[in-house]
Predict the 3D structure of the following.
Amino acid sequence: MKFKVISGIGLLLALLIFSCQSEDEITFKRYYTTGSIVYQTKCQNCHGKDGQGLLALMPPLTDTAFLKTNKAALACFIKYGIKGRLLIINNKPFEGEMPLTDLAPIEIAEVLTYITNSFGNNMGVVTAQQVSNDLAKCK
């Protein structure tokens, strides 16, 4: 009987905490969590578990200034890759190739939400609509 009461109280507390979250908070958590999975399967091999990159070969994802400055281009980098383009990240030049991906706009939005809110970054949700708009402007 005690177990049922304790379990019921625990469930009630969980429901109260969840119901106190705004729609924006729920969206952020959903994008961030799914983005973490996309990152692990598609990005982590090159950029590392902690987004530190690999010396001069793979750029880190820890430079908030770079991410903010290039926010509209990030979806293009992910979708279409980068080849031979010189990027300056954390004051270090990176040149090479990042392969294109077959990720859908929602997946790109999720992984960008994860990247731009991990590794010392704090930039909020990147929506699928933002990604679609950015992809339409890719050069």
Observations:
- The chain has a mean pLDDT of 87.
- The first helix runs from residue 2 to 19.
